[in-house]
Amino acid sequence: MDTQFLVSFSIIIATFALYIGIAVYNKARATSDFYVASRGVPPVFNGMAIGADWMSAASFIGMAGTIMLLGYDGLAYIMGWTGGYLLLTFLLAPQLRKYGRYTVPEFIGDRYDSHTARVIAAICTIIISFTYSIGQLSGSGVVIGRLFEIDAKLGTMIGVVLIAFYAAFGGMKGITWTQVAQYVVLIIAYLIPVIFMSLQLTNSALPWLSYGELVGKMGELDRELGISEYFAPFTNGTKWQFLALMFTLMCGTAGLPHVIVRFYTVATMKAARWSGAWALLFIGLLYLSAPAYAAFSRFILMTKIAGSEITNLPAWTKSWIDTGKLQMADGNGDGVLQWSELIISNDIVVMATPEIANLGVFVIGLVAAGAMAAALSTAGGLMISISSAFAHDIFYRVWKPNSTEKTRLSVARWSIVLATLFAGLIALNPPGAITQIVAWAFALATGTFFPALVLGVWWKRSNSQGVIAGLLVGLAVTLGYIFAAKYGGFTILGIIDTGAGVFGATAAFLANIIVSLATAAPSQKIQEEVMDLRYPEQMVYKDGEVWMSEDGSTKA
Question: Where is this chain primarily localised (predicted)?
């Protein structure tokens, strides 16, 4: 065994032991522990857990690679995902926390007083979370495959076993504190390489300020090679695709069930708002670094790898070729590797960069541990969402309302295990790159939950028939467009499958509003509950007026 393997393996095993120890220490012993961590998580730690939940394999592994390959057009991911947290923090999270439920389907079922809406919402949760989890398990396969120098598919199955164990054991309580630790690991693992690369290439320890000078140099290299310039906008898609993708990711963020449920783990509306503020800070550390990471990686590849003799390439290239994620071929037979002959998957850029930049075995191992932390943290949250949708919203609230707490916990844990195994099987041969698969999950959330939640909180006239129509129409339109664009070549204004949410959301909003207006209004009780959501917790909406206390004894 070489030194790099031993160091990487030791760091990953140490972090795994930490995660499993935290999960065991914080084992869920009641359903409130399992679903909402007993609503006792402080906002700053909840912000870190949200950050870890959010900075998935797509963000950690795929984001910088996507920007490296797409240039300006890749920024739609950063702007969309970050903007979505502003939408969620100010538009939905505090109101959903005030309603006091465990899950998004439970909010929809109770807000619209409909078991049918609850079941449809639960099915949508399972579809969205399942799609998202395929990307995470695929990402864990990339990391484990490189570490053991085995096929990424075998690495995926190892990741499945790890995730199934600690997610099923700890529930939301265990996952929350595990995610706090995972955030610390992944952000350190992300920042150290980009700071060291900045020192190597620009003599500055502030990559966020220094990478601009390299972007200018890359423009000159791009012109010499006759390829589209790195910072030129809309060279990899139309302007409409850029805007549609940004909209889809933004609204999808505000509608993702596994993200929203994190705001249920705090005690108050105020704590929910502060959780969102802390999450933006913690997420911003990575997202502001991703463009710098991408620029440095591309510059090193263009200047130190492209133009090298095929027989004299660095040793790291063979290791990545073995994973199936890197391809090199001397197409013109001149014995020199041209930029156009280098085919690198955007899913390996972050993982490979420490080796490309020769940053040492410790940094390589640290990045591997950070990537695993990102994939595991998000996958754990997704599995809790799938479990809660089935075990709580369908099994308990609809099918077996008299089941004991022990039975409910058992069903919840087994549903996590089965969902992880099933998602892992699909992740063995994923239908797209990690960021693409994740974008589909966001499109589905945009077309289903975003309209249902926005109208559910801010339009008291929306009723059960309207939300059912909106969920079904939005799901059908989004799925239909994804399949038509990816497999049928059908597009509108150049908008491809990753921007499908813009059509799903439009259709869902229209369906919900039209059907709600064409049918009877919700009861007066429900309408007052909706109005009540808009005010701080000490204020209550009652009899058409706002009161300062829960018992209605003091008028505002």
Answer: membrane
Q: Which domains does the chain have, with CATH numbers?
A: 3-26+41-519 (1.20.1730.10)
- pLDDT grade for 459, boundaries at 50, 70 and 90: very high
Confidence of residue 509 (pLDDT cuts 50, 70, 90): very high
Instruction: Encode pLDDT of 192-241 as tens digits.
Output: 888 988 888 888 888 888 888 787 787 777 777 666 666 777 777 789 99
Output the pLDDT for position 283.
87
Question: Which letter, b or e, does each residue of 390-410 get, where b requires 16 or more Cβ atoms within 10 Å of its Cβ?
Answer: bbbbbbbbbeeeeeeeeebbe
Q: Can you tell me whether residue 556 is helix, strand or coil?
A: coil
CA distances from 338 to 117, 131, 301, 331 (A): 56, 36, 11, 9
Cα-based torsion angle of the residue sequence 347, 350, 355, 356 in order, rounded to the nearest 10 degrees:
90
| Contact of 79 with 87, CB cutoff 8 Å | no
For residues 495 and 238, is the Cβ–Cβ distance under 8 A?
A: yes
Q: Confirm if 268 and 96 have CB atoms less than 8 A apart.
A: no
Which residue has better confidence, 218 or 168?
Answer: 218
Residue type, 506: T
Q: Which residues lie below 8 Å from residue 127, measured CB to CB, with a gap of 6+?
A: 444, 475
CB-CB contact of 484 with 453 (8 Å): no
